[in-house]
Fold these 4 entries.
Entry 1:
Amino acid sequence: MIGFETELGLRFVRARRRNGFISFISSVSMLGIALGVAALIIVLSVMNGFQSELRTRMLAATAHVEVKGFDAPLNDWQAVDRLLRQHPEVRATAPYVQVEGLWVNGDVNKPSLVRGILPEAEEAISTLHRHMKVGRASDLRPGEWGVILGIDLARGLGVRVGEKVALVTPQGTVTPAGSVPRVKSFTVVGLFELGWIEADSRVALIHMQDAQRLYQLGDAVTGLRVTLLDLMQARAVASQWVSSLPAGLGVSDWTQQNANFFKAVELEKRVMWIILTLIVAVAAFNLVSTLVMVVTDKEADIAILRTLGASAGSVMQVFFVQGMVIGLIGTALGVVLGLVIALNLDHVVGAIESVFNVTFIDKTVYLITELPSKVLVSDVAAIVGTSILLSLLATLYPSWRASRLNPAEALRYE
């Protein structure tokens, strides 16, 4: 059974007050808490989704860990590869050649990173095959001089699959007239789209043997790309290899390669948490004014309760229950609203974009093409806890004021 304090507090919430303004302010407080909680859930879910989606897209073009020479290519890369594969966290490895080049099609030229890959090994360490718009990685064959372009790079050059495009390399060919750039014609055999502008507009893939011949590397490679069983172990594995691998090798992991970006996203998430929590705080502390007015409106009822033997603590509990119920209902409504929107964000954003003819995500600015959303239980729990805590703090002063009411003063003019 519940005590009379709780029952009376719940009755005060349901009751139609004589002063309609108090009911209005109470509803506004509840609505404010709901909107604040919903906003927090939606924004943090978008931030989580943005971070997760971009990490996934980045890792489709990069590896969990990269091992390469400091100042020179790796000549005996097979021996290094065997050492890396001995680690229990390693799932797959693949050699690569990465250089810079200038793609030319008529009067149009575009610089890019040229990455030489082994197609059969690439599918084991990356998800590139899932992002192929046209063709497959296996279409790259040694000696056929084929290239797979990022879709934005291909669009900028104005080429399609099956057409020719020329690659100009920084390494020149020495002639009696001096050094001239080396130029090689490639056939476009595929297009990929990661949804990450840095890769889609600046990366071209060719067969590793073609890259070795074109850049005169012999059997050497730039380095080895490694995929782990758990990408979150990348930093720990990289640290182990720094001390255990032969001298002259550099080791970097995906958290180092994109450290500034992920730090910026994490900082932005924290700032947004603080800003939006202030919205919840303002709405929660509206409960103070609401409950103060309720206490003033119920002075006679409080005085009667005190004369019937109710203690100051019981009176305080009545208004504490009332305030907390308003806070809990507002929080619950906010959670429901926030989860519904966050879990259906693509439909909501699509509807808004079509109605108002606007674009929320410009991939040249945000690096991705869609507005992702990822709801974390830990975030929702933290939001609910914060909202309830703020509501609790907001009820303390009005409840205390009600408990200090003098029955004689309150009944003097009744």
Entry 2:
Amino acid sequence: MAGYLAISGYIYDPKKLLEEINPNVKSSKWLCTHGTQDGVLPYLKSEAEVKILQDGGFDVEFRSYFKEHTIDRNELDMIVEWMKEASS
């Protein structure tokens, strides 16, 4: 895979993930997006979980958008560009 994408997601146990993850997956490109107004999955929790992964060596790009638990048009356009870059 060229990379991994998470939209308004969360990591169940980021510290355990760091212990158990395949090193090849850890060094892959990752993109996580999240809405600052998300009422389903709290933004600050996801932001903190991504930080744990970044500090643990994951190549994770984290982008936030002023949106709820949805996909924003600007977000979708950015994802398309990210996918093109990740696969080249």
Entry 3:
Amino acid sequence: MIALIKKLLPFELFVGMRYTRAKRRNHFISFISLTSMVGIGLGVAALIVVLSVMNGFQEELRSRILGVASHLQITGPNNNLSDWSGLANKVHTVRHIDGAAPYIMAQGMLSNGQAVQGAIVRGVLPDAETQVSDLGLKMRAGQLGDLKPGEFGIVLGAELAQSLGVILGDKVVLMAPQGQFTPTGVVPRIKQFTVVGLFQIGMYEYDAGMALIHIDDAAKLYRMGDQVSGLRLKLDDLFLAPQVSNQLALALNSAGQDYYLTDWTQEHANFFRAVQMEKRVMFIILALIVAVAAFNIVSTLVMAVTDKRADIAIMRTFGASPASIMTIFIVQGALIGVVGTIVGAFFGVFIALNISTIVPFIEHLFNVQFLAKDVYYISELPSHLIWSDVITIVAMSFLLSLLATLYPSWKASQMNPAEALRYD
């Protein structure tokens, strides 16, 4: 069998692979090789898992934010907009715009008995709102269409409803901070609303701090008249928001009217920049693990060269060239890197694809929660494996392993056979 392998494999490859196995005197060298493989594997697996989680966070954060917020919004001076329906007809002529919905955005104080909570109050037109957000799909109780003009119904986030201690059909009092002047001073406007629905986005900021009412009821409470706060738009491709925003700004403002346009990349830029920065920093930090493990190969090969001085001298006397000797030790070191990289990539991909099962199991086993929903925006650990990231990590790991082999291999190729045999 060994004779057959010798015939099939090049001389340098066969000897290099043989040197990676433990033989009599070099058990310690093989142990160092094993630890280098394990280190590279752990580093590669950690990099794949962490980058997949960061990608998952970025994607999940974006989908949840844009499930409530808008891809693009238009407002006028003082955050007021007149003739929103005419503007909606204009913007629908622009490519990539799938839907438009008016809104009134304001702050309010909700109370039920002794429970009091501040909230962002959004006045919506239910039929139009379903065109620009996923709120209608996130209802835990009731329907968005249950908001009827003049009936003063309200839809609450699930966490907000829990804080107020209300369920479907209960009454809550909404107090608008914009008061009315009376002889006794400024009196806030107060109106009682009936809870007609509960929604749960899965993002604590919205679930605990947002309430929806009909846009006509919001106009009455906040004295907006025929005006709205603005127009929310949904695009067929959210990544085209900056281009569509510029195109709309030129088209609308050229008519002599002042409109202010903001897209999701501006409104929520800090979130996505922070996630992207964290991803880059984590890549650099975890890449150092791979680098340290890869450069352990240097010490492994240095000891291997010292241990194989006699073998090198004998091979040189039998006609092996310096390039062949160098190739042998490059093969030995590269094999350590390749095995560690492949094993690490396998486990990294496996964990990244099954993290939604692994993390809950660990949380249940040790009775811990990694992401508290009242602290983090997302209470579940998401993962999105991008194969280009895996390829980049594997290539980087192999390249570092290969670089680590060059100097010891070169030193082995420069060894003088006579000098080596003199001491053996």
Entry 4:
Amino acid sequence: MKSHNPFSINFDQQKLNAKRRLKSIRNNDLEVLSQVKSFHTQPNTLSKETVQLADVQFALARELGLPSWAKLKAHCFDLSLQKTELSNRNIALDSDISTLHIRCGHDIQNRLKNSGFAGEYLALIDPLCIGPIPSNEKHFVAIRAQYVKETLLPIAGRSDSVQQIAEAEQGNIDMLFDRRFKRLVFWVEHDAYDQLMLLRCLTLLAGNSNKTIEIVELNSFPGSQRFIGLGQLPEEAFRLCWQQRKRISGKLETQALRCWKALVSSNPNTLVEMIEEDGLDCLPNMKNVLTRMLQELPHCETGLSLTQHLALKVLQNKKDKLTVKEWFVEYQKQEPLPFLGDMMFFALLLPLAHLDKPLISCESLHKPWREQTFLLTDKGHLILANRARVEQEYWVGSIQVRSNGTWSWDHSDFGSLVYFP
């Protein structure tokens, strides 16, 4: 039996849900009343006696990510229509022109096919959100391949050579320019993994007038769960998203080129200046991504990146050891802009177990990596208490963090950038 998708909202079910909530409130269920208040714009006006069905419906719509009950009804109607079209489809949605669908990973490949798309699929899986982003285009692919070889493949248990990785990535890039495809469609979310891939590709494709280039870009989707990525969505949602795709303009391309130029600078002030400008209206999610990247610089007191800080806080608050799988799930709940897969998460945290004075200890190295268990060490507790600082060497885009001379950040939404010589 197919499980219900939390983003496949049925309007009749929501009407019943609202009526049940109102009945519970009338029966003095203070927990339900509190939930309604938490999503209502005028919570102080609501009580067991005064709350109306319209109030409950309004709060429920906002809880599901929509501004009003009317918007919820319209959204549910659109989803229902697309669901009906799924069973009646005769012509592929992208059949008007030869199309290549581009995505960070394979997570929606089958979903697109089942949603009524016939175009080919390209998974660009190089995670530019971690490791170095070289400024030298000539050596870009090789440097990234070396990083993947050293950092990710040992965890995956693979032994591909740097040359094999580089050739595969270059083959993917070449596919963007394949004359078979007259339209390229990027399916992206609001996180660093997707947005940096998009920047990279738009930079490579700049000035290419032979292809139609379109973007399906989401930073939210109505549902009963937190939206993290396209892979969560039901098939009818992909058809709905397709209707909202946008074609890149000269203005968007110019903004992408400026962002990429800032990204490959070794001075983080270029990113700060980009964030402070008001000129990224065509890339609505980019400022949050660039800010989140700066938060990966070492904290001015602890020396931890924000990812490391959030992950260690999870261990600090747990009495028992956690498997990597459990650890990652708990970390995701704290992450303000989820952008890591579980393997990338593990790769960023593992160096903390290999320091002269480790911050985390692994209790089960003989197990598969997702099942390995970790605890916070005494040193880790000291770091989180701001009673010690860890020195590390790693990359944040084109910024090299070194033990001698590095930029630091205070991890706030827009914090203080300081250079320590």
